[in-house]
Amino acid sequence: QNDADIKDIAKTIEQDPAIAAKILQVVSCSLYSLKTGSVKQAISYLGLANLQAIVFSCIVFDFVDKAKFSDTVKKLFWLHANQTNRLLNAIYEQLLKKKVPERAATAGLLHDIGRILLMLNCREEYRWILKRTQAEGRSLHLVEMEELNLCHQTMGAYLLNLWGLPYELVEAALFHHDPFNKEVTDRELVVAVHLADYLAWKRLGQTPLSTMDERTFDFLGISIAECEILAKEVPVSYI
Predict the structure, then answer these.
(1) Inter-axis angle of helices 6-13 and 17-27, to 10 degrees?
(2) How does DSSP assign 102-138, residue by residue?
(3) Residue 171 · residue 185 · CB < 8 Å
(4) pLDDT digits over 207-217, tens only?
(5) More confidently predicted of 222 and 116
(6) What is the pLDDT of residues 16-49, one digit of tens each?
(7) CA-to-CA distance for 204 and 199, rounded, in angstroms?
(8) Pairwise CA distance, residues 224 & 71, whole Å
(9) How far apart are CA 209 and CA 160, in angstroms?
């Protein structure tokens, strides 16, 4: 925000080995395919908006430790976020034949960030919400509304907006369970995140925590079969 030199930003990030390693992992994934050990080069390649999103996501997901959920739950939520981002980029590149808009390249990574806030601030209630969702086979955000009178989409969008991240990321978080809402401006992105979110749960061998809107495939001009093949081709990975 203060137009700091990339060299100074890199020097600051290198003081936190965990975040520095995460950034280097991100640029080496299939989305960027840059093999480098230089944080400065990685930052130049990512762009400051994506860098900011990655740093924030690392910090917020680390908060799950304080929420005292099981290691399995913590691992699953982080894995799901990364898998959603990988699938989002694969949907754009392989099925839509285009690049994800640069300002939205981390939309999959941050779409569920509101869950972390709820897990941290409503620990016991959220344990019950997860149990209800699994037992009743319902969408997580609907059970959240019944139990807490708020949902992770609203919480996530509020947080991303508070951080000053691009509106594309805010909108994807807010509407990823309601992609055909009339208020959506970048419908292609939001629908793609909606689809990637659903496919990520399936790819991880989990029952999706929400239903998929049947209009998704016609809107994107792709088929269910194409998506199923794509999901199997994208390796499960933290990055």
Answers:
(1) 120
(2) GGGTTHHHHTTHHHHHHHHHSHHHHHHHHHHHHHHT-
(3) yes
(4) 777 789 999 99
(5) 222
(6) 777 887 787 777 765 566 677 788 888 887 877 7
(7) 9
(8) 33
(9) 22
